[in-house]
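thought: user wants a sequence for this fold. calling inverse folding tool.
action: design(structure=
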């Protein structure tokens, strides 16, 4: 990394943003700019432009987003579309107006069609209808990556995107209603273990396939992509390993040491049946993930327990 550059990490308090800040610090970057939500509302165009013209970051990493699991998304597609669209439009345009030449936009693999070929290549974008449960979020992220692509073409700035698969790890959100499946499972199994509950209730049929990547591996991928002189507009970032939700539950059960029996609530949605990213493009440039799923989950459970003991668990957005 060019440690003389200033880096603005939008969303530095979230799981992804905080991992990017840690990774930048580990590389010796000291000019890391951040702004808390209370200081800068990225959905506010005037405030975002003012902040950028004052701070003029050399590099921007867009990890700010309104995120949530299948429950939160399907209940609030309007809010997920509106807020994420505003953040993407305001940050990309304000960065450009402030003279920023390099920006990395982060999205999610849910931008791809529900029935995309598996593993999903970047070329599957906009070839078929989206998964309905998170269509708002996906449309906002598609617009964001297209903004980067178009600003790059029209104005010659190097704005590009990474689309990570399902993420987990340090600083995750443990809200059991609106959260993602992996942290939710950790919390449910831990609660059942400590309360001695006989059952853990999980959603859907347990048959959907998901791929998971530790957020520290994503942070490394971000820095890797920012080092590339002429990166592709869009690159997937995944671990390449798929598990069923049922297998995931067994891994989490082992990591937590919880003896409770699992009950599947088929009245809850399964979401997209399969979502494996083809990450061969980024891998062809030399990036590889380092943290395997069992090890990453064990580490995350240990961090969850430590955070709980400190009274420092995130339970909402
Ligand atoms: P998605 O990957 O975008 O669909 O979102 P999630 O991270 O919320 O994962 C959802 C998948 O995990 C679906 O197949 C759910 O049916 C399944 N799942 C099982 N139990 C739970 C749970 O307690 N919470 C959540 N969010 N998903 C669960």
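)
observation: tool returned 317 residues.
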């Amino acid at each position: 990394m060019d440690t003389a550059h200033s880096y603005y990490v939008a969303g530095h308090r979230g799981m992804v943003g905080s991992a990017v800040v840690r990774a930048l610090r580990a590389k010796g970057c000291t000019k890391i700019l951040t702004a808390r939500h209370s200081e800068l509302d990225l959905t506010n165009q005037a405030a975002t432009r003012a902040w950028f013209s004052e701070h003029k970051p050399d590099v921007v990493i867009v990890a700010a987003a309104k995120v949530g699991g299948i429950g939160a998304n399907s209940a609030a597609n309007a809010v997920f579309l509106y807020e994420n669209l505003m953040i993407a439009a305001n940050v990309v345009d304000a960065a450009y107006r402030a003279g920023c030449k390099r920006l990395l936009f982060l999205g999610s693999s849910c931008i791809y069609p529900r029935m995309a070929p598996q593993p999903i290549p970047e070329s599957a974008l906009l070839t078929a209808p989206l998964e309905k449960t998170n269509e708002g979020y996906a449309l906002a992220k598609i617009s964001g990556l297209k903004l980067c692509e178009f600003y790059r073409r029209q104005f010659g700035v190097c704005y590009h995107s990474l689309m990570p698969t399902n993420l987990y790890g340090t600083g995750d959100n443990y809200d059991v209603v609106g959260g993602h499946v992996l942290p939710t499972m950790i919390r449910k199994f831990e609660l059942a273990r400590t309360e001695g509950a006989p059952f853990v209730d999980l959603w859907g049929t347990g048959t959907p396939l998901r791929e998971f990547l530790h957020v520290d591996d994503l942070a490394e991928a971000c820095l890797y992509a920012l080092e590339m002189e002429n990166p592709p507009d869009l690159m997937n970032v995944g671990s390449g390993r798929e598990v069923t939700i049922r297998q995931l539950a067994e891994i989490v059960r082992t990591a937590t040491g919880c003896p409770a029996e699992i009950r599947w609530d088929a009245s809850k949605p399964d979401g997209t049946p399969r979502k494996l990213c083809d990450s061969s493009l980024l891998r062809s440039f030399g990036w590889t993930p380092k943290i395997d799923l069992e090890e990453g989950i064990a580490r995350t459970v240990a961090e969850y327990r430590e955070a709980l003991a400190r009274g420092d668990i995130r339970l909402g957005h």
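thought: summarizing for user.
answer: Here is the designed sequence. The longest strand covers residues 158-164.
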